[in-house]
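Board notes (copied after class):
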Amino acid sequence: MTFQRNATRALLAGAALALGVSGCASWRANHENTASASTSAHRGPVQTASDAAITAKVKTAMAADKNVSAADIDVDTLRGVVSLNGTVKDATARQRAIDIARNVSGVLDVKDHLRTAG
């Protein structure tokens, strides 16, 4: 029962994060588009609202999986490409993290930069 309760909490937290981040990214995109050309310098890649939602979904799915330590994995998404950085306990956890990311809707590719401990 404790695992189910923790998984439910992780899913709810991830959903709240996705909604919050999506709103912030949307606000930023709308306000940057209204800036004049003279004040908008190229700032490098900008994460879209859908990228933020993908990142939240991947982190939520990892948090709900007992074989992956989501706290040790940094997830970044740019144009549907998910980059995984951090340390995992073994090759099985590494593969599971990659599989989780690949199975999230909207993910186009997964870049594995994970290291195994030990």
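Comment from the instructor: The two ends are 32 Å apart (CA to CA). The chain is about 50% helix and 20% strand.
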